[in-house]
C-alpha cells in the first residue's frame, strides 16, 4: 500500500484493540511515512509469537528506508519482558516505583475483602479510581468514586 491513500477496508471493523494499530498507523501515514499492512505472517515479522496478524501487523517506513514494525500498539523495539510486565497494572506500577517513577497511591486487593478496600480508600482519601489488574481499553474501570457507599456499589 502506498502512502497516498488508505485502503477503505482499514476503516471497517475498527474497534477494541484494533483501534490502537489504526491510530498509530494513521498518524505515521499522515506524517508522510510509508504504511504497509500485513494480512499474514511475513518473513521479516519480529513478533514471531503472534498468530492472528490480520489488520494488526503493519510497518512504517521513512523516506530514508528505515522501517519499523508494529503489532497493534507494540513497536519492534519493545522487549518481550516489558510486554509481560505491562500485562498487569500492579507489576507495571511496581517496576515504575523501583526505577523512581512516581505512581498514584493505592494497593491491590481481592474483591471479597471489601473492608480492606474501603479502609485503603479512606487512608488515601477520596476520590479514588478502581481498576481490574489485567483488563485494558478502560474496561472495568470506575472513576471519581467519592465515598464508601459508591465504592460498595461497584
From TrEMBL:
Keywords: ATP-binding, Nucleotide-binding. It comes from the Bacteria. Transmembrane segments: none annotated. One of its GO terms (molecular function) is ATP binding. Coiled coil: none annotated. SUPFAM superfamilies: Glutathione synthetase ATP-binding domain-like. InterPro entries: ATP-grasp, ATP_grasp_subdomain_1, CPAse_ATP-bd. Residues 93-141 form the ATP-grasp domain. Pfam families: CPSase_L_D2. This is ATP-grasp domain-containing protein.
Amino acid at each position: 500500500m502506498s502512502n497516498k491513500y488508505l485502503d477503505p477496508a482499514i476503516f471497517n471493523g475498527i474497534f477494541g484493540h484494533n483501534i490502537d494499530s489504526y491510530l498509530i498507523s494513521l498518524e505515521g501515514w499522515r506524517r508522510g511515512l510509508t504504511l504497509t499492512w500485513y494480512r499474514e505472517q511475513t518473513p521479516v515479522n519480529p513478533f514471531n509469537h503472534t498468530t492472528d496478524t490480520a489488520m494488526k501487523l503493519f510497518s512504517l517506513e521513512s523516506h530514508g528506508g528505515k522501517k519499523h514494525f508494529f503489532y497493534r500498539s507494540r513497536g519492534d523495539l519493545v522487549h518481550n519482558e516489558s510486554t509481560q510486565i505491562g500485562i498487569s497494572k500492579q507489576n507495571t506500577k511496581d517496576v515504575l516505583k523501583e526505577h523512581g517513577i512516581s505512581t498514584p497511591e493505592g494497593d491491590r486487593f481481592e474483591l471479597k475483602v471489601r473492608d480492606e478496600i474501603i479502609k485503603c480508600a479512606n487512608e488515601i482519601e477520596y476520590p479514588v479510581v478502581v481498576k481490574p489488574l489485567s483488563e485494558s481499553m478502560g474496561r472495568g474501570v470506575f472513576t471519581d468514586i467519592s465515598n464508601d457507599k459508591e465504592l460498595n456499589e461497584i
